[in-house]
Amino acid sequence: MDLELKNICLELKVAQQKLALQNAAQKNAALLCVLDSIKRNSEKIFAANKIDVERAKKNGMSEALVDRLSLDEKKIGSILDGIKIVVEREDPIGKIVAGWKTPAALEIKQVCVPLGVVCIIYESRPNVTVDAFCLAYKSGNSILLRGSSAALNSNNALCAAIKEGLQNSPEGISEAIELLQSTSHDDVEKILNARGLIDIVLPRGGKNLIANVVQNARIPVIETGSGVCHLFVDEDADLQMAARIAENAKIQRPGVCNSIEAILVHKNILQEFLPLLEDKFSGRVKIHSDENCFSILNDSAKKSGRECIVHATSEDFGNEFLDYECVVKSAESLEDAIEYINAHNTKHSECIVTKSREHARAFQQKIDAACVYVNSSTRFTDGGEFGFGAELGISTQKLHARGPMGLEALTTTKFLIDGEGQIRN
Fold first, then answer.
1. 91 in helix, strand or coil?
2. 68-99 tens-digit pLDDT
3. Which residue of 79, 171, 278, 409 is most buried, as measured by CB atoms within 10 A?
4. What's the rounded Cα separation, in Å, for the pair 134 and 234?
């Protein structure tokens, strides 16, 4: 075990033990001081972020990924709003999940407690720095942050503001957060082997990062998935609605995990819907089309003079583009669409556009994903949109947590048993 990492984790463990004893009012007061500190230091944060963004552009980072990296007044405003909501939410620690009395007259209570020392390994999204911290702090956990080299200046500026805010709070615990300065891949390996020092690790980023953590971790993992999300346009869908949803889910922020990567269209509405879709995408999105859709899309694109249609290859199906690219494919039926999606998705977010209540319910029952939408954009899969204030990520696994992870996802339970001298016969 690397001595520096060991010392960092030991300090985080001591800080967590102190934090676990604080009540909601103490933690909320500290978070409000952090909020004020981020406001005061916003110009420093923007200046640091500008360095990261300029370097990313120089290194050829795609427009969609630069958008994830960039901070502006609106994004900082969203971060601050998230802190406010976390402060307002009920503190989960100490919450009684269940309670009962046994035949032996033992009083048993199952209560929520913090996970302990949490580590998040994430790519170039500096908002995660604040989101992860405030959720961890409110739920009584200390947190180790391992960001990417692309966002190191931004993350350092944000962490400095967070620590300053905690130091300004009478009972704030500034040692409950630490950002690793090294971005060497060796650090990830050390984290994944930190048994007894880190209680749980969360990867948040692309499929390669997630696969590395899941496959090599010797400590517990909550898997936050890459987002190969699909939209299925059913035979009796409102086609204008479907086109608007497709436009929003693909184009609004294509570099995030809840944007769609594939659109399935019922075979009976290809002639009606595909020209609407091509018009919405209007040269902004490179469409990887299957053979059944290609001629219709291509003819529509030629008429508009905005050709951006290519033949899909086998590698395109199930691919996470994270860019202005998308697969378009025909589906024989509802069942065909469900079968295809379950075979190619990453269990993140899926959507059907339909007027049929029967088809909507069948889709929601049979699709295997954390979030399943009817007549709504997958872009709503987000802790903020779900009312959590912030999120640690979108869990695509089935154990412990699934979907957007808020405060409760950073807790576990223990049983408290009170007796009066009982012994077991």
1. coil
2. 899 999 999 999 999 999 999 999 999 999 99
3. 278
4. 41
